[in-house]
Amino acid sequence: MKKTxxxxxxxxxxxxxxxxxxxxxxxxxVRKVDNVAHRGASGYAPExxxxxxxxxxxxxxxxxxxxxxxSKDGKLVIIHDTTVDRTTNGTGNxxxxxxxxxxxxxxxxxxxxxxxxxxIPTFGQILDRxxxxxxxxxxxxxxxxxxxxxxxxxxxxxxxxxxxxxxxxIILQSFNFESMKKTNQLLPNVPIGVLTSSNTxxxxxxxxxxxxxxxxxxPSYSIVTEDLVKNVHGLGMKISSxxxxxxxxxxxxxxxxxxxxxxxxxxxxxxxx
Length: 273
Ligand code: G3P
Ligand code: CA
Hints:
Elements: H1 5-13, E1 23-24, E2 30-31, E3 34-38, H2 50-58, E4 63-70, E5 76-78, H3 99-103, H4 123-130, E6 135-140, H5 149-159, E7 170-174, H6 177-186, E8 192-196, H7 204-211, E9 216-219, H8 226-234, E10 238-244, H9 247-256, E11 260-263
Parallel strand pairs: 3-4, 3-11, 4-6, 6-7, 7-8, 8-9, 9-10, 10-11
Antiparallel strand pairs: 1-2, 4-5
The chain binds SN-glycerol-3-phosphate and calcium ion.
């Protein structure tokens, strides 16, 4: 088991917020669920923009989830797709555009005129604006397209002392397991998550392998079962599941007793309802 887990668990257990809903279970113990705003409160504002992240803070989510990629000239930027086509007024691959080109795009109008002028944020801007205000779940999106992006991410975190054990509300995750293994070596004190929607990653051996370097196993809710949650917990990892876009999905994950729910709608995750 990864040795930072025990410390992380202890630190997280004392960090309560309105959305880390505490509720009594049958045996009398108290459990919390972290509420993670997926690409910000993206049900209410354009994903991965300041408007969506501010909305998540306003809604008292515990974390924002962000997707990190890299511009042609090496700037780390926050955008989900590997092209700008769907969420901006531009076209092309993120990696083929300079930061100046990305900065000039409108990343809000596609969700309504009231959001026009929203920009693609940089990773640094997000860290500076939200550190200490809300947790940040950082996804390295398609890191195989950006050789060395792990080192660049680490550099930005270190610059701000966010690589230290006290910062338990910074978590890194990716669908790229090799990238997360490498990141764990570079940042041994920052929690690491692996993302998957594949049942082939839920076998006992696969989970054991993940537990060597990961603190979180983060599956699509389509593959979550009670047994999976038990197996992940049995290996000392936590489980955060995605992407909640309905009340039914939120209710299902609360019943499965996952540790965190990643949702476009932070208000859907309330076990008291
Ligand atoms: O945080 C989990 C989720 O973000 C993974 O899927 O495609 O929304 O990045 P995706
Ligand atoms: Ca993501």
